[in-house]
Amino acid sequence: MTAYWCEHAWLDPAVMAGSAVSGRVRIEVEDGRITGVHPGVAPAPGDVRLPGLVLPGFANAHSHAFHRALRGHTHDAGGTFWTWRERMYAVAGRLDPERYLALARATYAEMALAGVTCVGEFHYLHHAPGGSPYADPNAMGEALIQAAADAGIRLTLLDACYVAGGLEGTGHLPLNDVQARFSDGDAVAWADRVALLRDRPGVRIGAAVHSVRAVPAEQLPVVARAATGRPLHVHLSEQPAENEACSAYYGATPTRLLDEHGVLGPDTTAVHATHLTGDEITALGATGTAVCACPSTEADLADGVGAFRWLRDAGSPLCLGSDQHATTDLLAEARLVEAHERLVTGERGRFRPAELVEALTAAGHRALGWTDAGRLAVGRRADLVAVRLDTPRTAGCAPGQLVMAAAAADVHTVVVDGRVVVADGEHVLGDVGRLLTEAIAPLWEDA
Q: What does pTM read for this prediction?
């Protein structure tokens, strides 16, 4: 048994009024689970002391690991999401399982440094250039699984169905040369390949509809059936052009199309959900579909601001993702949700700190299928994230409002399933900056 004595700990993130923080908390851990929580006690001999505020582990509910190579490489010209996508396709075309393993390992280690204990990888880079399967048809997915294990965090592999090259008012487009890597041909072949993947310790296999652009309506039920009992994620209404094309061709909004074909529901998470009508907000909430906000990406790509407070009030749980990793800082993502709400509405406190912590922790883990994580409570997975209260950013902050001030750099200790992955700000793999440089530089040298 290992015991952690916390200067402060977040014990009840479901509380929306008052403080959820308790002082002088002893958390006992055995076999990767929390076996005891004792607030208001002195440390015992041998306890591991964690200064600052200890939070439950963060869940990054939406990641594209290979996009990390784009950071700092897309700002030399203007454009839109669609022009940025051409740079993204160029990077995708240079990856193989070995390179993907190196890049994802470093990317996930960077997440661990920021307090992420579980990631949902929205995975659609499946095959070799030209679309030919590798000898192991899941070689790229297995690279991601190995990368998460090496980095010390849990993974939900959201294997994405990707069939068409886009959608216009006249119908779906053929795949381009890069997109051929993403496709299995049709949803049945996709489901057959995904069926070869298995859950294992620290890994859950989920599913994804890439978007209504990439999966024709008649194939949506195939994906929904294959995902039964597992997390199912979908990019939804990220761009107005997607909505316009869907309405022109199908006579329905993307949300309505997904609902009519059995995709929405409490096991489903809609990513972005940026451009919605009031009826769509109501439909998502009524089905219990969660929503994943990725505000740093939505800002970086000039996508827009989602109606997340309205969605939450309608019944859609809110979680957070770093998406293309313009920054890897889930605390910043939480803060941006509130900041963008303030800019749009002219009101402060649209999301209380406790609601943002819930999105960071328990709600994100639920969206990824880890319902036994995300809280500091007996029986839960022993995921602990200790954040300093004495840095230039956090000194003087009330612990219960730390989420509105702290950054990834203030995280000093991360425990995942009882294993210390980050200690004193250092990852067990060593210099993560070096790992990132070694993984990313060759991709741009090739260019």
A: 0.96
